[in-house]
Design a protein that fits this description.
The structure is a homodimer of 604-residue chains.
Chain A (H helix, E strand, L loop, with lengths): L1 E2 L4 E6 L3 H18 L12 E6 L9 E6 L2 E6 L2 H14 L1 E3 L2 E3 L3 E5 L5 E7 L7 H13 L4 E8 L2 E2 L8 H6 L7 H13 L3 E6 L6 H6 L28 H17 L4 E3 L8 H5 L1 H9 L5 H18 L3 E5 L12 E4 L3 H9 L3 E4 L11 H5 L15 E8 L9 H5 L2 H10 L7 H18 L7 H6 L4 H9 L1 E3 L2 H4 L14 H4 L5 H11 L3 H12 L8 H21 L7 H12 L6 E3 L2 H17 L1
Parallel strand pairs in A: 2-3, 3-5, 9-10, 9-17, 10-12, 13-14, 14-15, 15-16, 16-17
Antiparallel strand pairs in A: 1-7, 4-5, 4-8, 6-7, 10-11, 18-19
């Protein structure tokens, strides 16, 4: 099917504004992606026609048929139409004289009903436009839940008209107005995405206490926290006024966020304040709460009752899973599949996040291999709603967050949507790169702002070569290097560098197919690299030099001198140690080449 | 002077909103460029303090002193403060642990009072955001006139309340509302930029006649023109109703555009309709107008009188310079320095555009060498107001126009501002690249959307290597390749490719300093290049292969085999012929290397 400037999408046969709006967005995206003229001729053009039978249904399945005369999309619901349009957008590709979509028949439906991204906007503030463009990207990979982590020690990010000191004193002025929240919720709904808010209690609440110290278990005063980790401030579970306050706030937020799920966090509660408070200890004895865990369970039950009153289903992290929790609660597991399986076995519904922590900056292949049902017994499987990737924001800014979520999120989204048997990692990487490029047209900045972030550092073209050859370290790799706080600028090489190097992946592929010219070009560029970023730049040049010599030996057919391979491997080990909070991914294809040399030597 | 997240700019001592607003913009730009944290500590930070003595003066000079404790900017006027702030922004650079500006003392003023960019928004429509971001970029290089080419055969781009069929029928719906015009004018004024509108008459007026055929010299009906060139439709100079219409329109536009200059075009009038019209010929005889040129002069005099009535000074292209033109008219020369000199000698003021046609996609060095005063006799020099670069929009879209104007416009802007003696081309290229990167932070898309335009075409990393090694051909190189009209999509390699290749420039520099590793890296990449873009890709591989062999000979010190150099030069000549509307810039450094080899052989 040819796709031209006159491409049109029609959802007239799906009586739902979401479908109509999606048709306009599809046209606009295809127009951008094609680079089409603003003025088009009036010749008849091919297009996509969508229909649905029950617009308001929640069924996300769809059927798509593309042929020379156009595309036909049918679904039960409007959301199904949305999903199918995203598939169509992925089909657009350059052809001999323009663009086309392959003739195809697709019958598609999601494996899990809950396919989420958790976005922390507390540790680093994320303006509305960041949220909106990530919603567009989520829709592009058929995610359907934005879990919005709206409060933590470092900031309370929503305007409260009931308790205004929450956002006024707890956010540095960086919060979403209620009008903005409504806009985000509507924007998400138009894309078939639910918004589940999280207000993390009773720990991770320092920012609440700046304005309302009376909520805390120790007197205060409190300041917005600039560091991260687990801090002592925790809500006072022993005072009725705490629950009255929460009733007021949750009631207000329950209206603002219409989704039926409501997340209360509940993770990482430090009990020092509780233990040090005679009043809380007395209260615990009166209520036969023997441990801090039991105190938290008491707290959770009270909160759960409040949420039920406001028509909400409670969601919490692992720690809320404890005896006495009402069975309608949903457990989100960050600690591992085992705890999720345990909760499911006891009849709770669950969401897996362990293994999907994007902020660890691990390879997509690692996340891709994690299955939400791994370790869950068959009979409990239906209680696993799905999964959620997590983007904690200790080390991300509005400028860097896109590149930390994307494109790896796309691989996880496939795990959540597609059949369990779809596990070919190489295929995933090829497709992830294509999706990554496509997300440019959706409005993400993960690729477009990369060069600017390097330009900022000086170093010119050489720095680009270096940056392409390294990978940024995640939270573990950054902890010791500097004293990070939310006041530290995220404007260094590690912030520009990608979690996974696309160009190094291509070189690994080149080794596999023995594409020596491509390897020589890369190694030569590394060997010539000369930037002010020492000693990294020198390490890269070393890797390039070793690669070039290995290539020469492979081509000449002469064996490597004795011990040469081992010596080079030792050097590679040395230079592959983290430097400047990044790791030299470039050593990987060089190592592979040395292994090939070694194997050949053994065969001799 | 250290520049940190807490950088502040104060213009409290310059009582002018333009200066205050510019201070806020400077802070925002520095914040973006630095990648600074949204939350800053409250420690005292360095900043810039600006003062002026006569805010409303037109004097653009300023004095800037930067030292460890901060920057001090003094100027007579608010506009001078604006200019000095742009200089300060250019000083920001990465330093050991953050950013800094060099300690410096600058006394600066412009050479010419009229430093313009002409933007054609008729042949291809440019939405308001394109105009706004280019105004920001203009301000960054201290340009002060936007010459807005608002009407032509292909579109009438301003809402007229007096003659609404102009924009309703003459624009495909792509026009600026009067409110948008006011916004653009105010946005420009806030940046010290005047907006001079051009309504091109009596030729280039097809789009006017779609709604008002009675203005034309032949009956019509008329359609919006999709091709470009010189067309027959021209206004009827013999009817009083034409001047009544123009009086109404010019009166309306004179209010909308407050600048005292008003451009009437006047170029390229085709006289076929005039010659074919008995009424016009009769009229000409009655008024003793012997030639079509004399008819146009009559028309111009009538229009000039109307403009004077509305308080405007008329500007026109070369062709309006004719006996009888009132001396307050300004002549803009597109045909050459000679015609400008002739007009200046006769007492007219002039602006040079010949030699500054950005749409020709010529090297910046070529434009940089053109001086507005070349050929102008000393006594007439004071009548040359300055110069204007021209961006005609036959081959540009909102997506590509930034990369066709920038960064070459910056080199021309320096010609208009700096002393005539500043002519070091290498220095210009180094600084132009730095300015180009800086313009990212001003909001231009000339660099950020490059990769996306390549992604659109498929071809992956290899296509980037190819695109970096070619240069787009200008209007002359495109005329014969396809049948271009305004309906043809501008989404091919030639549209993504830059007018001048930065990376090839770097390789030419590498040849000059005998940096063989850098050359080897580039040649290896070219030699390995393999994209679907044939035969270009094969040509690039050929150039890479020749380069690699030349490097080997240079390094070995062995002479080239007999005739080898001549044979390679022949091959380079063949592959340097335009293909796919681009030219292979990559041959240039290879040619230089062969010359070096040849010179060495002669010395032997």
């Amino acid at each position: 099917m040819a796709i031209t400037a006159g491409f049109h999408a029609s959802a007239a046969a799906c009586q739902d504004s979401r479908a109509q709006d999606a048709a306009r967005r599809l046209e606009a995206r295809i127009h951008r992606q094609g680079g089409f003229s603003a003025v088009t001729s009036h010749d008849p053009q091919t297009g996509l026609t969508a229909a649905c039978s029950e617009p308001a249904a929640e069924d996300e399945s769809y059927q798509l048929d593309v042929g020379p005369d156009g595309a036909k999309l049918t679904a039960r619901s409007a959301i199904g139409v949305l999903r199918g349009m995203e598939t169509f957008a992925q089909l657009m590709e350059p052809s001999a004289d323009g663009f086309s979509a392959a003739a195809i028949h697709v019958e598609d439906h999601p494996r899990f009903a809950w396919r989420g991204l958790m976005l922390d906007v507390s540790r680093h503030w994320m303006p509305v436009e960041v949220v909106l463009r990530n919603l567009d990207a989520m829709a592009a990979v058929k995610l359907n839940v934005l879990h919005w982590h709206l409060s933590d020690d470092q900031g309370f990010r929503v305007e409260s008209k009931v308790y205004p000191k929450l956002h006024e004193l707890g956010s540095d002025g960086h919060y979403y107005t209620q009008q903005q929240v409504r806009e985000v919720v509507a924007y998400a709904a138009a894309r078939g995405i639910r918004v589940v808010p999280e207000f993390d209690i009773p720990g991770h609440t320092t920012s609440w206490f700046v304005g309302y110290p009376e909520l805390a278990s120790a007197p205060g005063p409190y300041q917005i926290e600039r560091r991260w980790g687990i801090f002592e401030p925790a809500m006072d579970p022993s005072r009725e006024s705490t629950y009255q306050f929460l009733d007021g706030l949750l009631g207000e937020m329950a209206v603002l966020f219409p989704d039926r799920y409501f997340h209360i966090g509940g993770d990482e509660v430090e009990d020092k304040q509780w233990k040090a408070s005679p009043a809380i200890q007395t209260f615990a004895r009166q209520h036969r709460l023997a441990t801090s865990e039991q105190i938290q369970t008491y707290f959770n039950q009270r909160v759960q009752a409040l949420l039920q009153k406001h028509g909400k289903v409670m969601v919490g992290w692992d720690e809320v899973f404890a005896p006495g929790l009402a069975k309608d609660a949903v457990i989100q597991s960050w600690r591992g599949a085992a705890s999720l399986a345990a909760a499911a076995k006891q009849g709770y519904r669950g969401i897996l996040s362990s293994g999907y922590y994007l902020d660890h900056l691990k390879p997509a292949s690692l996340h891709y291999a994690v299955d939400p049902l791994a370790g869950v017994p068959e009979e409990a499987a239906s209680r696993i709603l799905g999964g959620e990737a997590c983007m904690w924001s200790e080390y991300v800014s509005p400028e860097t967050v896109d590149s930390r979520i994307w494109p790896r999120m796309a691989a996880i989204a496939e795990r959540f949507w597609s059949a369990r048997e779809v596990t070919d990692v190489n295929s995933m990487y090829m497709r992830m790169e294509a999706v990554s490029r496509g997300l440019d047209w959706v409005g993400l900045q993960h690729r477009t702002n990369y060069q600017g972030m390097l330009d900022r550092l000086g170093g010119g073209a050489g720095l680009r070569i270096l940056a392409d050859a390294v990978e940024a370290l995640g939270i573990e790799g950054r902890r010791d290097e500097r004293k990070y706080t939310s006041l530290v600028d995220l404007n260094r090489l590690v912030d520009a560098a990608r979690p996974e190097s696309e160009s190094v992946f291509h070189l690994e592929q080149a080794v596999r197919r023995s594409d020596l010219p491509t390897l020589r070009a890369a190694f030569s560029a590394w060997a010539a690299n000369d930037t002010p970023f020492q000693p990294l730049s020198k390490s890269l040049a070393t890797a390039g030099g070793i690669g070039l010599r290995a290539l020469a030996m492979l081509e000449s057919g002469k064996p490597a001198p004795e011990n040469w391979i081992a010596e080079q491997q030792h050097i590679l080990n040395t230079i592959s140690k983290p430097q400047s909070e990044v790791v030299l991914a470039a050593v990987r294809p060089v190592r592979m080449l040395l292994e090939n040399l070694g194997t050949r030597a053994e065969r001799h």
